[in-house]
Design brief:
alpha+beta, Cytochrome p450, 2 domains, 5-stranded mixed β-sheet, 3-stranded antiparallel β-sheet, disordered N terminus
Length: about 425
């Protein structure tokens, strides 16, 4: 039975009881969103583009999603602030426009620079080559590649690390889940995040202190984000304190590791679902045509995005889609889910949205968000993710392992495994 049929059946059973119908439809939406998000979003775009139930609103059409994400004065990221403070302190993803945000983002931009992209590309290329080296007769692309490359970037570029890669990856996943995913405040997830936070704070503090001592002693230090932030303390009055440096380093690594890994794994999985596109991507990689290869990756990410959308909190009563037939007032205090996944499938804006096309304009892609809080590391991700995927697709004879092992599997929100079989190596 389709979702439309389910809605019609529910409506027939609850005729005249609008509140009961609304509650059951919201429950049905929640269940189906987990199983068939594209089907749910398609229905909402058609019949209720701005779906409001109680203190939750779901926004699904492209113009309306962009409107929410670009009206930061009306739709706040304040919901992320409290769990961030529980972990380590303020970070820009939990700050609205204002003096605190401007100070933080200005200082970060001096240390986490867009012109570092070539350096990051070199680090990612080396890490990806190392993670795929000697893989035979099979490789788990999540555990061995997509998780580990961003973890190594954190060490090589941010200048911080965990006791080991697995621990750092686990901390980052747990903290990201607590801040951005666990809206119901699950007790077990909250306890896991609290344990991760309690462990990561002294770990990073120790590395900040050690680097600060090395700088004071005139010892050679790497030109990474940690060093740059500490040098700001010497050269300027607006520098971060040591605690603020820790907060920002934790925020950056939590934002880098799980998201880069998940986006890469989902895009690899999507390409393996499409033999023709997989062959085209491999041909572009083999020819060294990075521009063409990146378009394959970007389109795969549109069809299999890392996140279905972004959350905001309405801080005023605001009419979304003003002047249209579906204009809807979202009341102050409402939690708003702006579905970037749905927007990228909106046929009124994205031509042939379910087709894999390489000629789409950049405006078709919202997987890095939009507005003030568009992904801070989007320039990094746009380079690093294709490098990870290229390393995997370039493995000789790579194809899905048979059965469940070859499928992308998850633990909650996070991919944990996908095994590819490889062609035998010489003598293997």
């Amino acid at each position: 039975m389709s979702l439309v049929d389910d809605f019609v059946k529910l409506a027939g059973q609850t005729t005249g009881d609008v509140l009961r119908l609304g509650g059951q439809l919201a429950g049905l939406l929640e269940d189906r969103l987990k199983q068939h998000p594209q089907q749910v979003f398609a229905l909402l775009r058609e019949v209720r583009p701005v779906f409001v139930h109680g203190d939750l609103a779901i926004v699904t059409r492209y113009p309306d999603v962009v409107e929410v994400l670009t009206h930061d004065a009306e739709f706040s990221v304040v919901g992320y602030a409290a769990p961030m403070r529980e972990i380590t302190g303020d970070f820009i993803l939990g700050l609205d426009q204002g003096p605190d945000y401007e100070r933080a983002v200005s200082l970060l931009r001096l240390a986490f620079r867009q012109d570092d992209v070539p350096t990051l590309a070199a680090l990612a290329t080396t890490a990806a080559a190392d993670c795929t080296a000697g893989a035979s007769p099979s490789i788990d692309v999540v555990a061995r590649v997509t998780d580990r490359v961003p973890a190594r970037l954190v060490g090589g570029y941010l200048g911080v690390s965990g006791p080991d890669e697995d621990t750092l990856i686990g901390w980052a996943r747990s903290l990201f889940t607590h801040i951005f995913v666990d809206l119901k405040h699950d007790r077990i997830l909250t306890e896991q995040a609290a344990a991760a936070a309690a462990a990561i704070r002294p770990c990073i503090d120790g590395q900040v202190t050690a680097r600060k001592q090395a700088l004071a002693a005139g010892e050679p230090v790497p030109d990474d984000v940690l060093t740059r932030l500490l040098r700001q303390q010497v050269s300027g009055d607006l520098a971060f304190t040591d605690l603020e440096i820790r907060s920002n380093l934790v925020g950056l690594l939590v934002g880098m590791i799980p998201t880069i890994s998940k986006a890469s794994a989902l895009a690899i999985d999507e390409l393996f679902r499409r033999p023709g596109e997989l062959a085209g991507a491999r041909e572009a990689a083999s020819a060294g045509d990075d521009g063409l290869f990146n378009r394959y990756v970007t389109e795969a990410m549109r069809l299999a995005p890392q996140a279905p959308g972004l959350l905001r909190r309405a801080v005023v009563d605001y009419p979304v889609a003003r002047g249209t037939h579906h204009e809807t007032v979202i009341r102050k205090g409402t939690l708003v889910f702006a579905s970037t996944q749905s927007a990228m499938l909106d046929p009124d804006v994205v031509e042939d949205p379910h087709k894999f096309r390489l000629d789409r304009p950049d405006s078709s892609y919202l997987h890095f968000g939009a507005g003030l809080h568009a992904c801070y590391g989007r320039y990094v991700n746009a380079v690093v993710i294709p490098i990870i995927i290229k390393a995997v697709l370039s493995l000789p004879g790579a194809e899905r392992a048979p059965g469940r092992k070859g499928e992308l599997t998850f633990d909650g929100n996070w991919p944990i495994s996908m095994t590819l079989q490889l062609a035998p190596t010489n003598g293997g």
